[in-house]
Design a protein that fits this description.
The complex is a heterodimer of chains A (about 325) and B (about 290). With about 325 residues, chain A is α/β, with parallel strands linked by helices. Chain B has one domain: Thiamin diphosphate (ThDP)-binding fold, Pyr/PP domains (Rossmann fold), CATH 3.40.50.970. The chains are: A alpha/beta (about 325), B alpha/beta (about 290). Chain B: It holds the Pfam family E1_dh.
């Protein structure tokens, strides 16, 4: 593949390839059919190419995720697009009580090949019920994995992993990423490079094995903001940071993070979730024995997400919030 | 009336009665929901189902299971957490998976899942159907309507069997349901067949054609079977006056079949009573089921 690729196109290509590779795979969601192609155009062209298996549905999150679970139970595979991740609350039961539990509650492993895609997050001015980051509500559910879209990871690989696991997965996709560019060839920008250690992406200025002041851990949606903060910290504050981005947020694999964490004075976990019961709290607990110092959490305020842009900015995590969090952690 | 059907009816009756006895003696853990008085519906349906159909059951599912699998020991072991349990004792009374039979414990949850299985069947195994047993109380759940809408839109081979016993746990249908099940089915353009009979053969005769239409691509069907819940919701929780339950007993299938076949019923009844007693004794003596997450 040559040339730059926007993340929405990359994800679309990954979905298309997955559908082409497996004729038992379905893609379901509201308004996903052409010519509309989904609220965020992630599914554009797919219903034309796979009309029998890319099905636009009524506004019925509970129903369509349950139906996808039935397909999976019967041996098919299914991807469901929830138009806005806020609405995944309406599918909490089929995800938690059916799809996840069914993999073990019958006393033996029952494969459920199901992925629920959740366009997520704010910074688009959509207001309190269309802007949330609800990943934290799905942590710690037996049999359920939580992933997040990232500009550093290959979505085809991540999709294949999720669909192949035999346990259901949620794929949170920060809406602010869709129009951005996929990072390739180890290049993030003119300062930062990245590499991949399995599922873990590492962003660094010079050498990923260097001693640094701070390691940031963040899900994929935070990469642009974290990198902006790291650039300011480096150039203006002379603070050197690395960024670690796992594609799978839960269950968290700490082992690949451990070397970087042991070489940093501080660890800061960044996410867009509002305060309380956060992924960061889970990460902080998981890395407590490998981090050298205390772990600091940076997240959005304890608030609904307002609509007006200046108010929304005051609540959500921004590059400046992250920069401030790192400086405070090191002070 | 086949002896086999009579045996199945009486097996379920004695199995459920044995569970209530075990609870009374403190030998069962947790909870259970017996289908006393409703046995004839799954026994009748069995004659219309194929082993390649998916069957979705609910909390009140022992009769559904025993009508399809002649396995009281496996089910009792599941309920008692003993070796040989169908699902290693993890699922218990209301979470059973065996071949294409699945029960789960959240009201209404199974209907979208059944619609998904029906979609799979319509593409991969045309002629098969997904059958979901639900109660009248289940019709309070939004998932039911989302599933009916999808099933009707996509003409899925979904057979919904409503065991309408007039009471949801402690709440009479009159305090839980506005309108009717027939009216709700009609709203989606889904055919609805009402049956009020304790005669297994009659139920099959009435339902054979509409069920065949589901298999032939006619789309979903709602069967509403009037039934009498003779026992409590779970163990000792029946708020209904005794005379009300007594009136229900008069309309039960057991006196009906006693009038019909007489001594034949007594003979099969005794055989199944003895069989269930032996199963209870044998399973109770088994070691505890082993399982690791």
């Amino acid at each position: 593949m040559t040339g730059r690729q926007r993340i929405v196109e990359h994800l679309n290509a990954a979905l298309s390839a997955a559908l082409a590779d497996d004729e038992r795979l379905y893609l379901l969601g509201e308004d996903i059919a052409d010519p509309y192609g989904g609220a965020f155009k992630v599914t554009r062209g797919l219903s034309t190419r796979f009309p029998e298996r890319v099905l636009t549905t009524p506004i019925s999150e509970n129903g369509i995720v349950g139906l996808a679970g039935g397909l999976a139970l019967a041996g098919d595979k299914a991807i469901v697009e929830i138009m806005f991740s806020d609405f995944v609350t309406l599918a909490f039961d089929p995800i938690v009580n059916f799809a996840a539990k069914s993999t073990t509650m019958y006393g033996r492993r029952v494969p459920i090949h199901l992925v629920v895609r959740c366009p997520t997050g704010g910074n688009r001015g959509y207001g309190p019920t269309h802007s949330q980051s609800l990943q934290k509500h799905f942590l710690g559910v037996p049999g359920l994995a939580v992933y997040e879209l990232s500009p550093l990871h290959d979505s085809a690989t991540v999709l294949a992993t999720m669909l192949g696991a035999g346990t259901p997965a949620l794929h949170f996709e920060d809406k602010s990423l869709y129009g951005g560019w996929l990072c390739r060839d180890g290049v993030v920008d003119d300062v930062f490079r990245f590499d991949l250690v399995g599922d873990l992406a590492r962003v660094f200025a010079v050498d990923p094995d260097d001693e640094v002041d701070c390691v940031l851990i963040a899900p994929g949606g935070l990469v642009p903001r974290a990198v902006t903060a790291m650039r300011e910290l480096l150039l203006a504050d002379e603070i050197v940071c690395h960024l670690l981005v796992p594609s799978r947020l839960y269950p968290l694999d700490v082992a690949p993070m451990a070397p970087a964490l042991s070489r940093a004075r501080r660890v800061v976990v960044v996410e867009e979730s509002t305060a309380g019961g956060t992924w960061g709290a889970e990460v902080a607990h998981a890395v407590r024995d490998v981090a050298r110092g205390p772990v600091t959490l940076v997240h959005s305020a304890d608030s609904v997400i307002p609509t007006a842009p200046h108010l929304e900015r005051s609540v959500l995590v921004s590059p400046e919030t992250i920069r401030r969090g790192v400086r405070e952690a090191l002070s | 009336m086949l002896t086999e059907d009579l045996a199945s009816l009486l097996l379920i009756r004695h199995f459920e009665s044995a569970l209530l006895d075990l609870f009374d003696r403190g030998e069962l853990n947790g909870t259970t929901h017996t289908c006393l008085g409703q046995e004839h519906v799954p026994v009748a349906l069995r004659g219309l189902l194929d082993p390649r159909d998916y069957v979705f059951s609910n909390h009140r599912g022992h009769g559904h299971y025993l009508s399809l699998f002649d396995d009281p020991a496996g089910l009792l072991a599941e309920i008692m957490g003993r070796e040989g349990a169908v699902c290693a004792g993890v699922g218990g009374s209301q979470h059973i998976l065996r071949e294409r039979y699945l029960s789960t414990g959240v009201q209404g949850e199974s209907l979208p899942v059944a619609a998904g299985a029906a979609l799979h069947l319509s593409r991969s195994e045309p002629g098969q159907l997904a059958c979901a047993f639900v109660g009248d109380g289940t019709w309070g759940q939004g998932a039911v309507y989302e599933a009916l809408n999808l099933a009707a839109l996509w003409r899925l081979p979904l057979l919904v069997v409503v065991e309408h016993n007039g009471i949801a746990q402690s709440t009479p249908t009159s305090r839980a349901m506005a309108g009717t099940i027939a009216g709700r089915a009609a709203a989606f353009g889904i055919p609805h067949t009402y049956v009020d009979s304790v005669d297994v053969d009659e139920l099959r005769a009435v339902l054979a054609k509409p069920v065949a239409a589901v298999r032939d691509g006619g789309g979903p069907l709602v069967v509403e079977a009037r039934v009498r819940r003779l026992g409590p919701h779970s163990k000792g929780d029946d708020p209904r006056p005794a005379d009300e339950v007594a009136a229900l007993r008069a309309g039960d299938w057991r006196p009906y079949y006693h009038d019909l076949v007489g001594a034949e019923l007594d003979r099969v009844d005794e055989a199944q009573r003895a069989r269930v007693a032996a199963v209870v004794a044998e399973v109770s003596a088994r070691p505890l089921a082993g399982w690791a997450p």
